[in-house]
Every structure is written in structure tokens, then in C-alpha cells.
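Q: Joint fold for the lines below.
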Amino acid sequence: MSEVLANPLAARDHARRMAGTVVEAMPVLPPIADDLPEEASPADLLWEETIAAGGYATRRLARGARLRLIDVQGDACASLLLFNAEMPTERLNVADTVKIQWNAYIGAGKLLLSDMGRVLMSITEDSAGTHDTFCGASNAATNGAKYGDGSNSGPHPNGRDRLLLGAAKHGLTRRDVHPCVNLFKGTRIEADGTITPLVGPYEPGRSVILRAEMDVIAVIANCPHVLDPRADWTVTPLRATAWRGPVTPAHDAIRNATPEGLRAFENVDDYYRR
Amino acid sequence: MSVDPHLSGLTGTILHDVTVPARAPWLHHVAAGQTLRIVDLEGNQAVDFLLYSAADDAERYSAQDTVAAQGNLFLRQGTVLRSNEGRAMMTIAATSVEYHDTIGGACSCESNTLRYGHHTKAQHACVENFLEANLAEGRGKRDMVSNINFFMNVPVEADGSLGIVDGISAPGLTVDLKAEMDVVVVVSNCPQINNPCNAFNPTPVRMIVAG
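A: Joint structure:
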């Protein structure tokens, strides 16, 4: 038996020698990002993490915070769940999101709405344009059928099981994993209802910036889109950066873009009137 | 002896047969192998519909898994209604309406404030019905997910525009659902009066279980 296996102090030294190791997919603590937009100060950085291909991450974000997701290599798929952080029974409602905005496709200027008539996050910038509100995440059955295995412990993790683990880190359970939206991988709906997946791969560096309109819990899984037609399980890392920002002011263009959206913001104002 | 046209084609014993009043909820357990027929008695009535596995109600209908598995948004004859675990819960065995919706969700007091204005907040809504029925069996708000709207029409245009438009249903049209597992069916006979889903006039529907 080697020393590191038999001797607890040797095991400790072995563990400690790992300090400072840098890998592709990891959080940076404290957060550092050298490519923040002008309006963001490095002092306001909240989160910098690269989410592995097949991985997940979750974060509580305060009202006003910005979340930037970057599809670093062009083949990420960010399946996103959102909850009201102080009352997680309120969560993203994909049906209300598309119905209330009278449109199925999300992008810059669109709102992600809760089931309580409020806006959880708005999309302030989007250089991707290929997103999906319809298909949700892959699951163990779909990945098992396509790739032979879809388990968390195997080589082809599925989106739903990743979202379940992320939600569980906030004390949430299977009942709480609701329909999600997929960012970076899109769908187009044909006249007969056929769903055409738009999976690229795309040029590296496409990004989406979301603004928290309430205190939210975001859970993000980065697994291949459920309708990805490629035979091989294919996905690349996803970068997440968040920074503090001001609560959306009354004159904000997105807030005032539609009467339905404005009422969603007014319902948020009402919720925080304490 | 008069023949009830709404029972035509159903096989086995009629186990349950009830008319759900306009605007009301309905909950019923349907065993694997049984068939649930929904009759749109007066036409243009949206029937908001959720499903839970009777054995484990954290497994429930998933609109996203259902449409992804068939690669199409519309629910037609042959569509398998899938759970959040990807399993078959029910199959649309027959339908006299070409297709049904599963992207439009359910109306709620809260979403009504966005779609129509705060003057509609006090109106009855499908989520109220879903909650009332589910609470009777210990489920609650966390158990609310995207539902099916039988007899409702939500086309998606090329630019992504969508909206609830005139129903494609008519009086006496039906949909037959065969249970693939033991399920709990929760229905809201939609009370919405602010859009065309019920032709601005909610009406009763009939629920028949045979097997």
C-alpha cells in the first residue's frame, strides 16, 4: 500500500498539493473577469464560473444583478430554471412567458415570467438568437436511448438530472423541477407544428445577458439539447459571470415595451412594496 | 331505446360518467388500460388538463417531454402524453378534433392581470381549479406544470407569433385517452371569458371512463 493511501498525513499533504490547480471548468474565487461591459465595475463582480460540458451550476442572484452566459466554444446548451429565491413555489412559467408576450421565441427585450404574473428576469442582450421554449431538458430515458446511458455518474449526463441536482442544492425536490428554457440551442416551429432543432455548432463566444428583476435562484444545466440530431453526445463549456446592478428604473425601455410586460413589472413593484 | 351518441365506440363497462359544469374542476383516478372520453358538449370549450402518476405524483405530465418526443407541438391522434421521466402516461387513442394545444398553459388570476389588466384579477381561472382539485389530494402549487388544453387552438406563426384563436371544436366532438399507467386526471373546465378559447362563453363538458 502506498504511503498516500495508508498515512493520513500523507493523504493530507497530497490533497493540499492540489491547491492552485487550474482546469477549464471551475469557479474563480474571488471572481475575476477581464471582459466586463463598461457599465460593470470589477468591484461589483458576484460570480465567475465555467460550467463543464455536461455539468451544472446554480446561484442565488439579487434583484438588479446581471447574469452573462457565454457559449465559449459554440456548442453549449444552457437549460435554465428560475425560482423566486424567497418563495421558490413561484417559478418560471414557460407557457405564460410565451402566451403573455404573444410570441414563442425569446431574445433581447423579452421577459422570463413567473406563474404569479411577475417578471423574474429580463433578457437585456442576446447575440445568439437561437433559443428554445418548447423542448425542455433531456432526461435519463432520452439520453439512455440515444447514447446508451444518461446517468449523472456516466459519460452522458442528461439535462433533467442535472437540474434536479442543482435545485436540490436549495432544498428543492423533483416536484420543483418545472419546464425550462434552453439558451443557445434553438427550435423553429414549422406551419404544421414540426419542431426543427437549431443546434449549430455556432461561432464561439455568443452571449446572453439577463437582468434579475426579482431575487432569484437560477439553476443551469449544460447538456446536449434533447433534439440534438448528432449521434455523439456533443456539448462544450458554458461560462457564467454575474455582477451587481441597479434595480430596473421606471423609464427602462424593456419595462415599458409592452402593456403586458409593464404590468408584470408593476406586479414586481407591488411584491416588493414592504 | 334511444342511443347515446357520446358513448359510441367505447368498449367495456362505463365506469364513470359525469357532466362537469362550466367553470368547474374535476379530478378522477383512471387505471391503466381504461379509456377517458372528453365530450365538448356545446363546442369551443377549452378543457385544461393535467396528469399525475397515481403511484408517485412527483411524476407528472410534461408538455416539453411530450412535444420533444414526437418532434411536433400539436397533440394529435396517436400522441403519447409523456411524464417528466419520459414515460408514457396516456395515449390519444382517437380525436374528432384535428389537434390540441399544450403550449398555451392555464389561465390564472395573476396571468390575467398581465394579459387583460388588473380588473380581471378577481375572475375565476384554471389555476384556481387545478389548485382546488390538487389540494384535495395533498398536492399544491409546486405540482403545477404546463398543461394540455383539449379543444384549444394555439398556432405558431413563422415569426413566432402565437395566440389563442377561435376554437376548432364543435358541439359533440370528443377526444379519447387511453391510460398507459394508473393516473390521476385533473381538469379545469376553463372559465376564461376574455379570449376566444371558450368563444367567450364557458360551457359544460362530459367525462366518461370506460374499461
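Q: Anything notable?
A: Helices of chain A lie at 3-6, 8-16, 94-100, 140-147, 159-168, 259-271. The two ends of chain A are 63 Å apart (CA to CA).
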